[in-house]
Specification:
Elements: H1 51-72, H2 75-98, H3 106-134, H4 144-168, H5 176-221, H6 225-242, H7 248-272, H8 275-313, H9 319-326, H10 328-340, H11 346-368, H12 374-393
Helix pairs in contact: 1-3, 2-5, 3-4, 3-5, 4-5, 4-6, 4-7, 5-6, 6-7, 7-8, 8-9, 8-11, 9-10, 9-11, 10-11, 11-12
């Protein structure tokens, strides 16, 4: 690939970029390509959390901890946290599995969870206390808090985290699936702390029996509720990013959808009981979201194959390698083959596949014009993959 002559400044994160043509991919050299001694690093900017935001998260975490200790004591929240961790771990594992072939930066994952668990939750508590103290008459309206206030306030704060993630991680949030993952992680963090609150209150008011009922309803029957709501907004933002479009409009649409889903979820349980709406509204809604997520994943695998095809035409990869990097049967075959190599080289193969996914998305960013420095990542990733390929094919003792 050629070096960009005038890369210029990166565009504003939320601006609608001009359509780019992408860097020209130079043909692969004849014979064995040169393999770098050490793998080059990717651009850090656009994949890391702003340092000052960790201080904001830390302050919100201290405020959240202070709220629980002063309100419920220390022992109750500690025990409830253990129970709340069970559904939290389950949903996070599912989200990581969904995007396992292009893992997100760990710091971005931690920040997304922390935004939901500390920033969004403590602001939700603060707004709730403010409404109760200044607008007490609102409590007289049946369902106002759960059907109106909670969906609007909670989803607005959670979905704002998606914009913050995008502002910092414009090279990490590449498409609709990434948007779903980041939105889901924010929702998982929020649900974790909210579950702690519900579990503590259930135990204090009704003992073990009430706690058991609450745990069953929230942790077993509906652990994905908050994840679904915020993931809907993340999907809209990620789709706009993938297409190189302004994200504010899609974010607003996604926010409205998240609020509506949240209101329907709460309202159906409030006005028609839990189990009937759960069977005929909530389960079908969850099933629809699962099917949509799988279809989105397949669509993005197809897009990944299209981007890698450009490297196939330039001679850097074979069609079989492109299939291995972008299809389930190809990955399975590649990992099976790597396991037969001396020393079990599946970790190398996984690294090769991960970098192949990142290479395809770097190419997509270049084509949409939203990342003038995408060629820098393309060159780094291509060189890393050449090195990994050489390690995979190296004879024993080399």
């Amino acid at each position: 690939m050629t070096t960009p002559q005038h890369p210029g400044r990166p565009p504003r994160t939320f601006a609608s970029p001009h359509r780019g043509s992408g860097e020209r991919i130079d043909p692969a050299p004849a014979g064995e390509p040169h393999v770098p001694v050490a793998p080059p690093a990717l651009l850090r900017q656009g994949r890391s959390v702003w340092l000052w935001l960790w201080f904001v998260v830390a302050l919100c975490a201290l405020a959240t901890l202070g709220f629980f200790v002063t309100t419920y004591g220390a022992a109750g929240p500690a025990i409830a946290s253990v129970l709340a961790f069970i559904p939290f771990a389950a949903v996070v594992i599912c989200l990581m599995w969904l995007d396992r072939w292009e893992p997100e930066p760990r710091a971005m994952i931690v920040f997304a969870v922390a935004w939901g668990a500390f920033v969004a939750i403590i602001l939700t508590f603060a707004i709730g206390l403010f409404v109760q103290s200044t607008l007490p008459f609102m409590a007289t309206f049946t369902g106002f808090s759960s059907v109106v206030q909670a969906p609007i306030v909670e989803e607005l704060l959670k979905c704002a985290g998606i914009l913050v993630v995008l502002a910092m991680g414009r090279r990490a949030l590449d498409g609709a699936l990434d948007g779903i993952v980041y939105g889901g992680l924010i929702g998982a963090g929020f649900a974790f702390v909210e579950n702690v609150k519900y579990f503590v209150e259930s135990f204090l008011m009704g003992g073990v029996d009430d706690l058991t009922t609450t745990f069953f309803m929230r942790a077993v029957l509906s652990p994905f509720a908050h994840i679904m709501f915020t993931a809907a907004c993340g999907f809209a933002v990620g789709l706009a990013v993938r297409r190189g479009r302004n994200v504010f409009g899609p974010w607003l649409v996604g926010l409205v959808v998240a609020i509506a889903l949240h209101a329907i979820w709460n309202g159906s349980a409030l006005f028609a009981g839990f189990f009937l709406p759960y069977l005929f509204v909530q389960i079908p809604l969850f099933a629809l979201c699962v099917v949509a997520a799988i279809r989105i994943r397949l669509e993005e695998l197809r897009l990944r194959r299209e981007r890698l095809e450009e490297y196939v035409r330039a001679g850097w990869f074979t069609p079989q390698e492109a299939d291995m990097l972008s299809t389930r049967p190809g990955r399975k075959a590649g990992l099976t083959w790597a396991a037969t190599l001396p020393g079990d080289r599946r970790p190398m193969m996984k690294r090769f596949i991960h970098d192949g996914a990142r290479l395809a998305w770097a190419r997509q960013r270049a084509l949409t014009g939203r990342d003038p420095l995408a060629a820098v990542d393309e060159r780094a990733l291509l060189r890393r993959m050449l090195q990994t390929r050489a390690e995979l094919l190296a004879p024993v003792g080399r």
